[in-house]
Structure formats: structure tokens, C-alpha cells
Amino acid sequence: MRKCSRIGCDRFHVALDLCQIHYDEHRSYQRRGIRKNKKLESPLTDVKRFWDKVEMSDGCWTWRGARFSGTDRGQFKAQGKTHKAYRFSYEIIKGEIPQGLTIDHLCRNPNCVNPWHLEAITQRENNLRVPRDQFCSRGHQRIAGTRRCDICSKEVSALRKRRYKLAKESAHEFSLETRSIGK
Fold first, then answer.
1. Considering the entire predicted model, what is its pTM?
2. Are residues 8 and 83 in the same domain?
3. Structural domain containing residue 71
4. Are residue 50 and residue 91 in the same domain, yes or no?
5. pLDDT under 70 in the chain at which residues?
């Protein structure tokens, strides 16, 4: 279990990387509108907190912290602002992202924060690299020039055959016509 992020505190964290005592203190300052959060005072503490939420391996470095709702993109709060985790990682290691450029995941893994898997490119180039229609909603490669995915098409075909076979068997069992089953 992680420890409280306050220097000299050895208690286990409860929320916001703070122990119960420091978290309660933080909340009381918030209620009174006083901005006294020692975590926000040092960018080095933010960097350490960031890397504590990353699972490093030989390839992709997986983000294990909070995510933006409805996406696989990680989020990280530092210096009072919410950052995209992969952009924060890029800026820590490679420096500021040039204006007008966006970050592309070369590995195509939205959870990856490995800065060597990230590249600053124009939005146009990013759009040209992976067309939105290249993958179906389940992540399979689409058949070239169509909106169909070969894997999903085969699964749907197998399900329809199975449904027809069951309908035919049920119709025979109850002396009904096949077309009256399953409608």
C-alpha cells in the first residue's frame, strides 16, 4: 500500500495520496476556500506521483491511474490542472510539445505513456496515419473498401445459422412452420 505523500508522514494513504489526517486537513481548507495543499507546491512531487501510477515493462508503459470518463486515456492532476497522462509523460522526458502539434501513439495503445512510443505530429498527419474506419467497433481490422469486419461477419453468419437451425428444430417439435418461430 502507498504511503502519505506529505514529507515525514509514514501513515498509509486514503485519498489524493494523503493519509486520513492530512486528507481531512486538506478538505477543511477546501471548505473554507483556503488554497493550502502542500502536494501542489512542488513539481518534483507531481513527477514522483506520476511515475508511481505507471507500470513499466519492456514495451509499453501502462497508465494505472485515473482515466477520462468514457475513454482509455489517462488523466493526471498536477499543479492544480488536469493533464492527459501521455502528454504529461512526453513533456517530462522530451520537453514541451510544440504549438500546433498533437501527440500520436506509435504503438496504437491509448494507455501507453512511454515517451519513446509518442511522437509530436500535426493533426492532419495523425488523421492520415490511422483512418477512423480501419477498425470495427470491436477492434478488428475491416475488409478493405468495406464497412464490414471479416471476423464479426463470420460470427454473425454462424449465429444466424445456429438460430435458423434451432427455429427449424423447435418448429418440427411443436408442429409449426419455421417462419413463425423467432418473430
1. 0.52
2. no
3. 42-130
4. yes
5. 29-44, 130-133, 137, 144-147, 178-183
